[in-house]
Design a protein that fits this description.
single chain; alpha/beta; Beta-Lactamase; 4 domains; 8-stranded mixed beta barrel; 5-stranded antiparallel beta sheet; elongated
């Protein structure tokens, strides 16, 4: 036996090593069996879990689903094999339009990119297309070795039948509806319309399509609202809203911006040249008669259009340009439509500039009054003046009323401007009397907004008292169309003014729709024949017949009749032959500043009347 050799010892060592290995193997097997039992337990729990579970691979860009449990299959109708490899948005429509759902989906995408948890209740869809509400919670899962996210685990619950959720959902939906819809018509309001238009623009951009935006404004709605009351006005709006909605395509959106203004969003416009056909149908349905309080009404509307992307690439610009086109349609005579054009940009800018300057014109003493004399045809003497406003613009020079009065009316500036005109005319008339000249009548035109003020009679009374002008030296002019728009209510105002002692005249007579029965009840002093009839004298018998009829009508009611716009000797002679009482126009004199009026007064052309 060689040194170092010991068979018995080596055998013993081998036996011990084998026993150790068997022991380790047994221990490892026990551990593996225990771990497997735990895994089986966990898998069993997951498989039997009442809530749907989704495991998503975080390392792939489209976040494919790697696992769904049976509860997911039962809840959604998608089998395991149908769900595996799909994107987590499997339960949501690609063409989803619900704003809140889209917002939550975007938030979920952002959360997953940042690797943070996410919770939401989303409107979802099962395999068969049935809608349900899904309460979902997503959590990131990290590798314990490197702390990097490897997966996302989602727990989903169908809460559609949950009573507490339903109550909460109904409350939220009610609040959301109230915040995004017009109470009267149920149409989308301004907030929702802008959101829907933004979504439509995003889709049109992807699909390279056009969108038509229409602003529809009812013509003369204020007269209906004022004449029949707000409840009747509301009823009219409801009727017209339904008519518009029934005429539009199912893909179009109709909303109400407020007042009598509606907005249409028409997506997927393939041929812009076909839009006029739709617009003509909208104009036609608005014109259909409406019966309110046993009276037949015929409304019209003005429509303005802008086109995406030609006229704007964002909601604000498209709506602004469609609105500008609508105002252009009104200027064209109403009951028509206009497409937005680039030339309107210049007009809009000019209008805004005028409105901005007009807001400061009063405080800067830029407004002034000119006076045009009135001639008594029988006495051949001047018996009064009409006060006419002018704007001494610091850059553009002297501006005529047609350049700014309509803007003042639309913006509401006509209220302070109108009061200034009334007060200034009274102060000037009293100054002439205080200077020793015979008392005369100065007439002032009233705007619709000014006359409709609830305290207008009080304003007139206060101005007369402050200026110490006698009421019989002030004449207020109202257009025929204004007072006939709400004859019953306005008669009371006219009578209150008459009780003050103020003189009244109906301006532009012959262009409105006065009935003899109404006219007999109006406590007015003058009828003013519209200049359009005077200018037409000599061109045919129609104008002459109308003028004769107005003069005869006025005299039969003990009213004086004045003809406006007299520019020739022939017109003057003809009106004299027809027994017209007074005339006014360029033939006699153009409007003049106060200092020029003094030369007339000093020249003795005025007689005490």
């Amino acid at each position: 036996m060689k040194d170092g050799e010991n068979p018995e010892r080596d055998l013993q060592r081998e036996k011990e090593a084998r026993m150790l290995a068997e022991s380790l193997l047994e221990k490892k097997t026990h551990e593996l069996n225990h771990l497997n039992e735990k895994l089986q337990l966990r898998n069993g729990v997951i498989e039997s879990f009442l809530n749907a579970i989704v495991i998503i691979n975080y390392n792939l860009s489209d976040y494919p689903i790697e696992y769904v449990n049976p509860a997911f299959e039962k809840m959604t109708g998608y089998t395991f094999s149908e769900a595996i490899g799909k994107n987590p948005l499997l339960l949501h429509k690609k063409d989803e339009t619900d704003y809140e759902t889209l917002k939550h989906i975007d938030t979920m995408k952002i959360a997953m990119k940042r690797g943070i948890p996410f919770d939401a209740v989303l409107k979802s869809y099962k395999k068969d297309g049935k809608e349900f509400w899904c309460d979902l919670h997503f959590y990131p899962v990290k590798d314990p070795d490197n702390e990097k996210i490897t997966h996302y685990v989602g727990i989903l619950s169908d809460v559609t039948e949950n009573k507490f959720f339903q109550a909460q959902l109904e409350c939220e939906q009610k609040l959301k509806y109230q915040a995004t819809h017009d109470v009267l018509t149920g149409l989308a309001n301004r907030t929702l319309l802008i959101e829907l238009l933004a979504n439509a623009i995003a889709q049109a951009k992807r699909e390279h399509q056009h969108i038509a935006v229409m602003v529809i404004d009812l013509d003369g709605f204020k007269f209906v609202n004022d004449g029949f009351g707000h409840s009747s006005g509301d009823k009219l709006l409801e009727i017209e809203a339904k008519r518009l909605r029934d005429t539009l395509r199912t893909s179009d959106t109709l909303g109400r911006f407020g007042g009598d203004e509606f907005v249409v969003i028409a997506p997927h416009v393939k041929d812009i040249l076909l839009l006029p056909e739709l617009i003509k149908r909208l104009l036609a349905v608005i014109e259909e008669p409406i019966f309110i309080e046993n009276q037949e009404l015929h409304m019209t509307c003005s429509i303005g259009l802008s086109i995406y992307p030609n006229d704007g690439i964002d909601p604000e610009m498209l709506l602004k340009n469609a609105d500008a086109a609508m105002y252009r349609a009104k200027e064209q005579g109403k009951n028509t439509y206009q497409f937005f054009t680039s030339e309107m940009h210049t007009k809009i800018a000019k209008r805004l500039t005028v409105e901005h300057g007009l807001r400061h014109a009063l405080e800067r003493n830029e407004l002034t009054l000119y006076y045009q004399p009135k001639l008594d045809l029988k006495a051949k003497s001047i018996v009064g003046f009409e006060a006419l406003i002018r704007w001494e613009h610091p850059e553009r020079g002297l501006l005529m009323p047609d350049e700014f009065i309509s803007i003042a009316e639309d913006s509401g500036l006509i209220i302070p401007i109108g009061e200034w005109v009334l007060r200034t005319a009274c102060i000037q008339n009293k100054a002439w009397q205080d200077a020793g000249y015979p008392p005369i009548v100065v007439s002032v035109n009233l705007s619709p907004r000014q006359f409709k003020q609830k305290n207008f009679v009080g304003i007139v009374k206060t101005i007369l008292e402050e200026t110490n002008l006698k009421p019989e030296h002030l004449e207020l002019e109202l257009t025929e169309s204004l007072i006939m728009s709400n004859a019953e209510e306005f008669i009371n105002v006219l009578r209150a003014l008459k009780d003050l002692g103020v003189l009244l005249s109906i301006d532009d007579f012959g262009t409105g729709y006065s009935s003899l029965s109404c006219l007999r009840r109006f406590p007015v002093n003058w009828l003013k024949i519209d200049r359009s009839f005077v200018s037409a004298l000599g061109e045919g018998e129609d104008a002459a017949s109308i003028i004769k009829a107005i003069i005869s009508l006025g005299h039969s009611l003990n009213l004086r009749v004045l003809a406006e716009g007299v520019e020739t000797q022939d017109q003057l002679n003809t009106l004299g032959e027809y027994n017209c009482d007074e005339i006014q126009g360029f033939y006699l004199s153009r409007p003049m500043p106060p200092d020029k009026v003094l030369s007339l007064l000093q020249g003795g052309f005025l007689t005490d009347k």
